Amino acid sequence: MNGFYELAIIGAGPAGIATAAEAINSGIRPSSILLLEKAPQHNHSIRKFYPEKKLVTANYKGNDSNCEGILCIPDLSKSDTVDYFDQVLDSYGIQIQYNENVFSIDKTENVFQIASTSGVYKTKSAVIAIGVLGRPNRPSYSIPSELKKNVTFDITSTPIFDKNVLVVGGGDSASEYVQYLVQQRNKVTLSYRRDSFSRMLDHNLNAIEDLVNKKRIEIFYNSNIKCIQNNDGPQAVFEESSLGVKNYDHIVLALGGTTPKNFLQLLGIEFRDNWPVLDQNHQTNIKGLYLAGDLVQGPKGGSIITAFNSAFKVIDHLKKNTFKNNLKEDQYWQDMFF
Fold first, then answer.
1. Which end of the chain is more exposed for a tag (fewer CB within 10 A), N or C?
2. Position with higher pLDDT, 148 vs 337
């Protein structure tokens, strides 16, 4: 186990960072907050998709929202926007754990267990701030409809335990999926179309090499799938005659792109019209599990300001309920022993 936290936040974009800042402002110690980010830097989408000379607008699409919480930002350049969040992190003492891909969140007896790339964390409350619902990249071949539960684009669409699994891809997601699937007692094969990995971060590459050396996974380099067909389960037909046709219990196509919808549904979060069902405080049907950022805005879209405001609303609700009781409990034990 990697520790117990008052609050866990998934995603270090505007909503995730604002949630951490609001929580600290409410009296929660920075060391009691777990902030996990899949990318190697905070605000990965802003860094990746915004041109340097284009303003990052605080409000857009005709939305004109006023800042409700402690954070507020005007329209800024890309670099100034990143600098702003650097200053927020420094001012509030917020620590981010990068390169952390979250695979599952389970709740038992009012405690959430978060399984990620680095292990398992426990927390009293959790906020998911991972961005908009997107689409994964799809292969050129079609996938038989009867295999939709056995051929997925991530490992959060359905639980996978004690199976013979093929992972297709050569990036960080492919590596992280392989690592997690091995932990879940699966027999794992990784198929990659090139002769070496060039897109993986060092720690993911090292992890893959370690699993190969321990003979816990097999890698098919220079391999290409011609099609996937149904043979009482997924059957991969490779273009290479040396590989031929192979049967699996499950195939994961880690080809890039993400879709949080499958992940959220796997957690047990209810959906209506392709969007999560939330109460007025952005709490899901699972008590203590909240959403923030673009996920709470629906099809109309959000902005940095609405992301800030969603964080404020979540923490305001926690402060009046969960945090209030927990802070009293912490003070009781401090008075007893210190």
1. C
2. 148
pLDDT in tens, 208-246: 999 999 999 999 999 999 999 999 999 999 999 999 999
**Both 196 and 57 in a single domain?**
no
Please state, in angstroms and rounded to a whole number, the distance separating the CA atoms of residues 56 and 52: 9
The residue range of the domain holding 244 is: 145-253
Say whether both 9 and 129 belong to one domain.
yes
pLDDT tens-place string over residues 56-105: 888 865 566 799 999 999 999 999 999 999 999 999 999 999 999 898 99
CATH of the domain at 307: 3.50.50.60
Q: How many CB atoms lie within 10 A of CB 165?
A: 25
Bridge partners for 119 per DSSP: 116
On whether both 29 and 91 belong to a single domain, the answer is: yes
In this predicted structure, the answer to whether residue 331 has a pLDDT above a threshold of 50 is: no
Query: Within a 13 Å sphere around the CA of 20, how many CA atoms are in the beta-carbon half?
Result: 31
Q: How many CB atoms lie within 10 A of CB 307?
A: 28
State whether 151 and 202 are in the same domain.
Answer: yes
Which residue, of 253, 271, 306, is where some domain finishes? 253
C-alpha span between 318 and 246 (Å, rounded) = 51
Instruction: Mark residue 18 as left, alpha or beta (left: phi above 0; alpha: psi -120 to 50; beta: remaining).
Output: alpha
Helix (H) or strand (E) holding 261: helix 260-266
The encoded tokens of residue 67 equal: 């800042």
Among 233, 253, 273, the domain boundary falls at 253
Q: Work out how many domains the chain is built from and give that number.
A: 2
Whole-angstrom Cα distance, residue 189 to residue 192?
10
* Whether 266 and 127 share a structural domain: yes
Q: What is the pTM of this model?
A: 0.77
Strand partners, 238: 225
Residue 273 has pLDDT above 90, yes or no: no
Same domain for 153 and 226, yes or no, is yes
End-to-end CA distance of the chain: 27
